[in-house]
Amino acid sequence: MSPPAKTDSLFRWIEEREREHLESSSSSWGRVLDSGTGRHSLTWLLHGNSSSFIKEVVAVTGEKPLANELTAEFAPTKTPHATPLTVHAGNWQNAAFLATEKPFDVIIADYLVGAIEGFAPYYQDQICGRLEKMLAPGGRIYLVGLQPLSESQAPVGASQADVEAGKLIQEVARTRDACLLLAGRRCYREYPIEWSHRQLEKVGLQVTNSVRLTNVYGRSAITRQLEVGRRHVSMFKDNVLADNMQLALDRVDKRLEEEFGSGELPKNEQRRIRFGFDYVIAAHKSIQS
């Protein structure tokens, strides 16, 4: 049995929107498409506070082994309401993928746009149209994303020290991405909230609400991003470049320690700053569609 869902703020916000829909229309959730699935979202959908309202979940991943694992881990016999679950492995770029599925009442696009780069490069501007076709008339879509760090800034009123720390976070992200690119890998590519808003409207969906939740970064979270880059240095084709990148990573890590303190400190004793945000955009399809 999976542990009870630890619903985070973004998912709670979606639950509140569906609760409002229930109060106004006497229906909510119904048949759900988790269009970029993982353990976190499935735990929420199948074990969370709203799981009793969900009739069926169809989930999508780009990885067949993960699809098999999730199918076993979240089988109806292991969830509180025995919710039917089907996990597909496939690529949204394939027009035939899920072509026989019936329309969905709710679609969750949980960091899907950012993840697409690894499976269907340059398809980001098509994904909203692809999902719109799978949404039932009157259906709702919730698009969850991370404001790119390159477009982020410290909140209004932040101290100069926090502003400088935010710039260091951006440098860590750029260094991580440089390592991935030099290793021949593709970077996770998020898009700004304004871009996502436009894409939803372009395909005929009506944006009804959105929320921005400020992120809080401490040494541990930032160091994890640096380590993502470090793990890819061994894949560089140029050994001299790899050696120099390791030295560069060490220098950035030293600056992180000066700015945020030792990574050995307990999490609650590390310096933390507010920087950037995650977002959810709620949109719906006209009932006349």
TrEMBL record:
CDD domains linked: AdoMet_MTases
Domain of life: Eukaryota
Name recorded for this polypeptide: Methyltransferase type 11 domain-containing protein
Organism for this UniProt entry: Phytophthora palmivora
